[in-house]
Amino acid sequence: MLSRMADTAKTKPAPAKKSAKARPEVRFRMRIRNAGAVALGPGKVDLLEAVREYGSISAAARSLDMSYRRAWLLIDELNRSLKSPATHSEQGGQSGGGCTLTPVGETIIRLYRDVEEQAQRSCAKQIAELTRLIRR
């Protein structure tokens, strides 16, 4: 289920179909707040994954149906909240610039997705009980 969640994070969700067999979707949305701001959360991790895949903030933003400005502000806010930046950007020019993840950025993705996976596994029984209460 988590790999499906990671895959669908990069695309717009399909409209919900009314079906007797539709299963509720369970998603963990961990956020780390610092000084009132979200230093790290699901949107920033999704954006880091898109930057890793596409090699630029603008392409990552397009893949997430987000404006370049919004993506740039999220990356900037994330980098300012960390001891070391998660991304490294090259200025545009003949080669067009780009953005890559630093080892810190790679570590953030790995740890964040590990937490989601462990939470899903350790709460599987409670999740199953809760989803049985949902009308389908």
TrEMBL record:
It comes from the Bacteria. One of its GO terms (molecular function) is DNA-binding transcription factor activity. Transmembrane segments: none annotated. Residues 1-24 are annotated as: Disordered. Residues 46-106 form the HTH lysR-type domain. PANTHER family: DNA-BINDING TRANSCRIPTIONAL DUAL REGULATOR MODE, TRANSCRIPTIONAL REGULATOR MODE. This is HTH lysR-type domain-containing protein. It comes from Paraburkholderia ultramafica.
